[in-house]
Amino acid sequence: TLAASAHAFLTALADIPETRSGSGDLSQFLPALKGGHPSFTELFLVDEHGYVATDENMGRREPVWVQDKPYFTRPTDRRPFASGGLVRSFVSGEELLYFSLRVKTAEGVPLTLVTGIRLSCYKHLLGSLPLPPGAELYLVDAAGNIAYCAPGGGDAFPAELPDVLDKISAPQGVIWPKDSGLVPLVVFRRLYLHEGDRPYMQAILTL
Fold it and tell me: Which of 17, 48, 109, 143 maximizes the CB count within 10 A of its CB?
């Protein structure tokens, strides 16, 4: 999966000299990441104060502060790998799906490794799935933002659906019209990075 690939690559970068020093250029490693998944488009390091440590290598002259971004706030010592959800890139301006990993320098200073993925990856992964007539498939992040919709690439789903899903704790299941009041039948599955955490993504199929 994309999450597993991001985790494996960021973990491998955690012990290289460029990361351990806290100020290295990580852009040289992006081609290796893109070789396995072309949709990976960003790779950078954030210091303990929330500033991008390699911003000069991403076409930025002024410091970039990302302390308020989920990919910086969500990783913890207990849960070092996290999904940053959908966030607008400070480089390209497009909305990307971010994953991040909390690491430490050789001196023990906390840093955050971050990678961003283009949402077009889901079109390549899911675009060929045969859907029943009238069905719609959505991928929705933890904040309720739609990462992917087929067919048509819509940006909204049935208004009642978020409230219905919030009341159900099961990782997967079916919501019948008679139970939810919705016109469509709904099949859902939640994707988790860690057991017991909130899902970082939900796959929702309306029929």
Answer: 48
* Residue 9: Cβ within 10 Å count: 21
* 2-56 confidence digits (pLDDT tens): 889 899 989 988 888 888 887 667 777 878 777 777 788 888 889 899 988 864 4
Is the whole model's pTM more than 0.90, yes or no? no
The first and second tokens of residue 170, run together, are 């099961």
Q: Of 184, 92, 170, whose CA–CA distance to 138 is shortest? A: 184
* Token reading at 13: 């970068």
Cβ–Cβ under 8 Å, residues 55 and 42? no
Strand order in the sheet with 146-150: 146-150, 136-141, 201-206, 186-191, 172-175
Three-class secondary structure of residue 192 per DSSP: coil
Q: Which tokens belong to 29? A: 């490693």
> Which tokens sit at 11?
């973990």
Please write down the long-range contacts of 83-88, taking CB distance under 8 Å and 24 or more positions apart: 83/3, 83/141, 83/142, 83/193, 83/200, 83/201, 84/114, 85/141, 85/142, 85/143, 85/145, 85/200, 86/119, 86/141, 86/143, 86/145, 86/147, 87/116
CA dihedral 30, 32, 36, 38 (to 10 degrees): 40
β-pair partners for 86: 97
